[in-house]
């Protein structure tokens, strides 16, 4: 995820910025840059930027010492809009008068770009951030606060900004909405940063900006303002975390942090694509004719991304009435598949580098298929080679076991299915509107489920010593339990298998005995009775059953030993809600078994070999 550091004070700024950025390296980034004011009012600001590692920035600046000045801003970028290149790296400038670093996503940047072009601004990058630099310049009439207020009023989306104005040497400004920003003070100067680790080596005295608050750093003090430009008071606290705890935002593990980041990651993935109650996928670059000409979809992926495909099959077929086949990428590439004309290949991958998924994509391209990729890492191999790309906005994922990337991949599939359904006329307006509305509620509902974390922790205690766990579900719930079982086995080393509940009686039920653990997911209205019969079957054979079902389905308590309720949504969206308790369960089981949750044995985050 992008990182921000800003400093003004009495020391050499470039060194401090580089050190601060280094402390944010663990978050992942693909380019970096700094901008330091030379202290002379009106001197044009210049940015120094590199693609790749921070070391390149150190090499370019003689470890920072060749850059004169005591105030500046720095950034590590994780690409979202535009590939990782020097031009797209931050800081972004407007004519040398304003420099900006930005975390977050500006949803209306395309409109803003057009407006600014009409006002005579030219763009050097493909980023959403550059629009902010030009807007600030446009509104800057000598009063930085006023320029910031006017600018942020025009921004839709999330942002944490660090800003320099060339005619205000020694001053660094910051403002935020839905992306974190802190301010920190020390005897040697003052700081802004996106995250605590960036400043820990200089100070522990920090305050957290709230949404729509502005901060102005000067060497000898920090001031805060609201959107009316009125001064406000902020309370500073002393951070007690060590660096390791600070990197995880205070969570014990990256996996837990990333589980908790899901509402935000979902919001960031969904919100930019919703306008006036409609799904808008203009960046995908697919024409309506192209969408209508598809008569079959072939999906391929590995691991959890394959589970996303299993879910997408049900959703796409139900909403858009397009037949969908799903293959493991490692199977697809070798089975000489028969691909009829009009079949679109869809590859789902967080990293965009998984060897089998990439090979499957290349195979499809060789066959002349139109290839669409759902990818998290901008500019990755799969993203570059696919014809069309839908980027998820999960940000970098560090824990090996995927959580937030999986959730955002689901969100991408939902949006594609709804968009295809509208274009192909397979959904009436009322149902479409209901689904879009339900989609926008998912991030909040995931937040609600996370509030019930303690119960999952308690339940995990009951499962911690089990040898085998059986996950069962029907329809979309079957797709969800595939992911639930994988989560448990990969980080707890408990043997866990997922079964389509209807298949139990064809073999697996012979394994069920007194004390067997069964996790049953039951959210699909039309399949509820049948799923309950399966629960009764395993219960009668002595299994302990944990059921996940929707709010209000209290009858489940008659059949299951424990019941976890999840908020109601449209049937097709339950996988997004069901997965959260399953992730928490796996996490806490792993924790209680003393396993290295973030780095389970034998597994890699990105599998770039066969
Ligand atoms: C590895 C990871 C999984 C991931 C799979 C596919 O096995 O541990 O979490 O689902 O690779 O990775 P991708 O980057 O293609 O989504």
Named CATH topology of the largest domain: Glutamine Phosphoribosylpyrophosphate, subunit 1, domain 1
* CATH class annotation of the largest domain: Alpha Beta
The small-molecule ligands in this entry are:
6-O-phosphono-alpha-D-glucopyranose
Helix content: 25-40%
- What is the CATH architecture descriptor of the largest domain? 4-Layer Sandwich
Structural class: alpha/beta
Largest sheet: 8 strands, antiparallel
Residue fraction in strands: 15-25%
Query: Kindly state the mean pLDDT as a whole number?
Result: 94
The number of helical runs is 20
Distance between the termini: 28 Å
Shape assignment: globular
Characterise the protein shown here:
The chain has 610 residues and is of the alpha/beta class. The protein folds into three domains: 244 residues, Aminohydrolase, N-terminal nucleophile (Ntn) domain (Glutamine Phosphoribosylpyrophosphate, subunit 1, domain 1, 4-Layer Sandwich); 195 residues, Glucose-6-phosphate isomerase like protein, domain 1 (Rossmann fold, 3-Layer(aba) Sandwich), CATH 3.40.50.10490; 146 residues, Glucose-6-phosphate isomerase like protein, domain 1 (Rossmann fold, 3-Layer(aba) Sandwich). Helices cover 36% and strands 23% of the residues. It is built from 20 helices and 27 strands. It has an eight-stranded antiparallel sheet with strand order 3-2-4-1-10-9-11-15, with helices on one face. Helix 17 links the parallel strand 23 and strand 24. Helix 16 crosses helix 20. It is globular and about 80 Å long. The mean pLDDT is 94. 6-O-phosphono-alpha-D-glucopyranose binds next to helix 10. The site of 6-O-phosphono-alpha-D-glucopyranose has 15 residues, from helix 10.
